[in-house]
Amino acid sequence: MARISYKISVPVILAGFFAIVAFIALDYQRLNAGFYLLLLFIAIYVFFFGFATGQRFASPVKKLLERATELSKGNLSSRVYLETKDEISELAKVFNEIAEDLEQSHAKEESTERSVDIKVKAKTQALEETINALEQKVQNRTIELQRLVADLDRFKGESKTKEAESVLLREELQKLKEGAKRIIYKKLSKKRKTAKAAVPGIKKIVEDLEKLQKQSRETEEEAEELISKVRKVKERIK
Question: Does residue 227 belong to any structural domain of this protein?
C-alpha cells in the first residue's frame, strides 16, 4: 500500500519542486535571502501536501484491500463504507454488493445443507427402523426353527426308544408264544386227567398272551403317532 502512496505523492512533490526551480531560474539574480526562506517554506508545504494527497488516495484503497482480504479468508460480513464521492467509493459499493451476494449465497447453501441433512437423517432413521424390524423377524424365525429342530430331535429320540421297546415286546411275545406252544404240546401228551388239571394254567397263559398282544398294539400305535408328528415337523421346516 506504501507503493500507491508513493506513486501519488512523489509526482506531486516533484511537480512542486520543478515549479519552484523553474521560478528561481527565471530571475535568480534578483532573489534575496527572504525569498529563499519563502521558497523553503513553500518546498516544505509542497512535500507535506504531496504526502497528504498520496495518503488521502491510498487510505481508501488500503481499507478496501483489507476488507477484501478478510472476505477471501471467509469473513462474509466484511463491508467497506467510504465517505468520499469518487470512483473508489463506487468501487466500495460494488464490493459491498458482491460481499452481500456471497453472504446470501452461503446462507442459502447452509440452509440447503441443513435441509438435506434433516431429510437424510429422517430416511436413515426409517431405514434403521426397517432393518431392526427385519432383524427382529429373522431372530424370531431363527428361534422358532431352533425350537422345531429341538422338537424334531426329541421326537426322533422318542421314536427310536418306542421302536426299541416295540422290538423288545415283539421278541418277548414271540418267546411267550413259543413257550406256550411247548407247554400245550407237553400238556396234550399227558393223560386227560393231567390235561384237565392243566386247563386253568393254559387259560392264564392265553390271557397273558392277549395282554401282551394288546400292549404290543398300543406300543405300535404310539410309535406310528410319533412318526406322524416327526413327518409333520419336517414338512413345516421345509
Answer: yes
